[in-house]
Give the backbone structure.
Amino acid sequence: MADTTLMDKLVSLCKRRGFVFQSSEIYGGLGSVWDYGPLGVELKKNVKDRWWRAMVHARDDIEGIDAAILMAARVWEASGHVAGFTDPLVDCRQCKNRFRADDPRIKGTPGQRDAQCPVCGSKGTLTEPRLFNLMFKTFMGPVEEQAAVVYLRPETAQGIYVNYLNVLQSSRQKIPFGIAQIGKAFRNEITPGNFIFRTREFEQMEMQFFVKPGTDAEWFERWREWRMQWHHELGLNPARLRWHQHGPDELAHYARAAFDVQYEFPFGWQEIEGIHNRGDFDLGRHQEYSGKKLDYFEQATNERFLPYIVETSAGADRVTLTLLVDAYREEEVEGETRVVLGFHPAVAPIKAGVFPLVKKDGMPEVATSLYRDLKLRFPSFYDDSGAIGRRYRRMDEAGTPFGITVDGETTSGRTVTVRHRDSMQQERVSLDLVGDYIAERVGGTL
Ligand code: GAP
């Protein structure tokens, strides 16, 4: 199977089954903005819930926050985004298209006579590169003037730094400790694409860990290990996960060291999470720009210092895409192609499908009542239409790990058939215990 075909098949399955739709589709769609449908929202929520559990609930040293998307414009001056969050772009004076200056399709040097436009083919029509800021800008209040400019945040991290003192004081944490946040971020990406991999509106799961200078390298290594373990526990194929270390030319302005968790997508190895040792850059800059002291007094040693930060920054949409790509498979079964999303049961959007074998002999009544009970415990789905094989196949495509069929033996012997998505094996389980049976298998670990 060609790799591009896999992405095409996945995009089409996501639409057909209600995982992901193009934004504003009936108006022709909005470029690189996507909406999550009924199954997609559950899948992505499971990713976020697992992250929150691992980061905030399972630990004593991390607090959660939910900061606003709109922040004071000075925040983005302090962070370096106003001056530095830019891509160099060139325009074609002939066809008016705009490209990144490093677009591999450009032949020659932009701004020079030898440069040829990759779209219209004209020579010598490309402008010199100009810097283009990736932040979305809007105005706050009724007047559209420079003083009223605000930005949609391009990362959630800054909401954490500016609340560092508030959280420290209100939670009575001591260094080392962390602050975690999940939320939307916006970037006016010039070359977005690959479905929900790179979009203009996306969600980040970021954690900033505040440590004593000198202990940062040690914490950085710990966080690297914990984060990779988290990805493994999502059920991802370990052979498709690896580390990529940023070389000196790749390091962001704030980073002393950076490693990416990469996944092998059909379009190549790509970053899904970044772990950064940010030193004292962030608190130092906010201290300078706000005029507010942000240093920390350590009572045990009687020392005062500006904490260093180790950041873990993952994209909720990217991890969701990773799960979809990793789970997709096609199998030949009895002369037909079976499409399966083999999600780990803990992340599957629907945990169990409930089916009456036929629509008579009291089976729909028993199945409906079972479905009502199960639905209160975990996401379940009721389906009584079509042949049972078809109903199983629909659940395979949705990635539902268990199918429960109410049949003739249910009324006589109070047992149901449990069908396993991956092996397609069936076993009989007591009607009264089937809820516990499935609950035990979909809980998952942190
Ligand atoms: N606070 C650091 C930071 O934002 P980043 O490497 O720019 O670092 C971190 O972004 C993560 O956010 C990436 O690993 C990726 O998962 C996600 N991300 C960044 N830009 C994205 C985009 N345009 N679309 C989807 N996810 C994106």
Summary: The domain at 4-70+152-325 is CATH 3.30.930.10 (BirA Bifunctional Protein; domain 2).
